[in-house]
Design brief:
Distance between the termini of chain B: 25 Å
Number of strands of chain A: 0
Structural class of chain B: alpha/beta
Number of domains of chain B: 2
Number of domains of chain A: 1
Largest sheet of chain B: 7 strands, mixed
CATH class of chain A: Mainly Alpha
CATH architecture of chain A: Up-down Bundle
Largest interface: A-B, 24 and 20 residues
CATH topology of chain A: Four Helix Bundle (Hemerythrin (Met), subunit A)
Distance between the termini of chain A: 11 Å
Radius of gyration of chain B: 21 Å
Radius of gyration of chain A: 21 Å
Order of helices and strands of chain B: HHHEEEHHEEEEHEHEEEEHEHEHEEE
CATH topology of the largest domain in chain B: Rossmann fold
Structural class of chain A: mainly alpha
Shape of chain B: globular
Oligomer: heterodimer
Number of helices of chain A: 6
Amino acid sequence: MGISIEQWVGSAAVLAATTLIGQALANRIRDRPTNLRRLCSSLRVLQTEIGFRRAPLRDALTRAATAARGTPVGQLFQDAAETLTKPGSTAVDSLVAAVHKHRHACSMEMEDAQVILDLAQSLGATGASDQVASLQASIAMLEAREREALAVRDRFARVYRTLGILAGVVVVILLI
Amino acid sequence: MPHPSIECRDHALRSVLPWLPQDIADELMRLPSAIREGMEEIRLRAERPLEVSGIEQMLLKKVTRAQISHVVQAITGSSLYAVEAELRRGYITLPGGHRVGLAGHVSQSAQAQIETMTQIGSCNIRLARAVLNFSRRLAPILVKPQGSGIRSALIVGPPRTGKTTLLRDLARTIGSGSFDRRLPRLRVAIVDERSEIAACHEGVPQFDVGISTDVLDAAPKIAGMSMMLRAMSPDVIITDEIGDAGDAGAVADVTRAGVSFIGSIHGGSLADVRIRHLLADLRASGAVERFILIGRSGSEFAIQNVYDETLREVTGWASPSSSGWEAQQYLLRQP
């Protein structure tokens, strides 16, 4: 019994889809440590701008965005800074909206995002020394998550990619 | 046709609404237009009713701690750490010149100096208004013969009689060349210790204080006058609320340098015991040539009398009635 042309096309589509899913998951695992590192760097800029320069938060966020220019993390901080320029807007609203908008592009897990969302609750609402302490705590938490993300990447990045292809092959065999 | 000042007061209220939580803003806008138009202050106190005052005082629904926190975040641009100097003074100036007084828990340094304020529980938003051209009626007694300059003057009056408002309009007209036809535009320097005359927000005066006017914001008066004298070579120095012998000495230094001085002082009259010694010092040094006594009659501000350095009454200035003062009130810059 031969394989029809439709079966060939269907199999190819299934294989392509599972491979792409595997690739996307692998990319997310691969990019997460890099994005977490960028997030930490931007938070360090924020810490300097607030702790030493006493720069208004919108300016500090813009500088943090510049430190990660051209990346989704940079875009996240840029969006938060732009929202904050509107009269009456607050750090909580602007940062929470930016995190929800860019979380997936930044390959952030919900727990990663939660660190920034928690930080947003007190950002700009206390004196400089408290702000620095709060930023340091967030940076430490993100660094810990980065280490964990690196371990996950080393263990699973290739696995997901291979698994995507293999899952496609299995589905094709079952269907045929 | 509505009164021009009325339209503008309502505009002042609208311009502070973006800094308030939405439900409070909605509640204020639901008030009858007569209340909105006469509104002067909005007071928010945590877990107590919202209070508005002006032509009428009213209590509205309870303000929550979260709403106060929202207001503080909004007015500080979520940068409480960047406004610690303002917190030490107790107020923050918004775009438009509106002033928000704050009260909360004060932290002190080891030297018993106020370091910052936290746990803010009360905000008092004072809606800003400006008065235009009222000062021009003083031109006949302040402009020197042939328009060769301005006489140094001291405005004397009790609180809330419009001393700062008059100083602001003097700065604007003198610094814009519109004070008197005989007088060219002069360089004016404002030493604004309490940020009330120009209401600077991020370095930009929120009131029109004249095109040739420089503002030294939040500077101590004595050091500030000396700085402006050296740095900006002004024709006129304007400052608010002089109060002690040190201030009088600094004023004398200004006038000795050939620069005119215009300032204000709290006092009910020239015989007021609290200011008698200071006035005597100023007269003895010849630093002040005109003493302008202002007061309030009903809801109107009024120039009551003008005296020269020998305390002889000076005449020749425009009508003592302040009609037109209220009618010309409007907000100069809207955010």
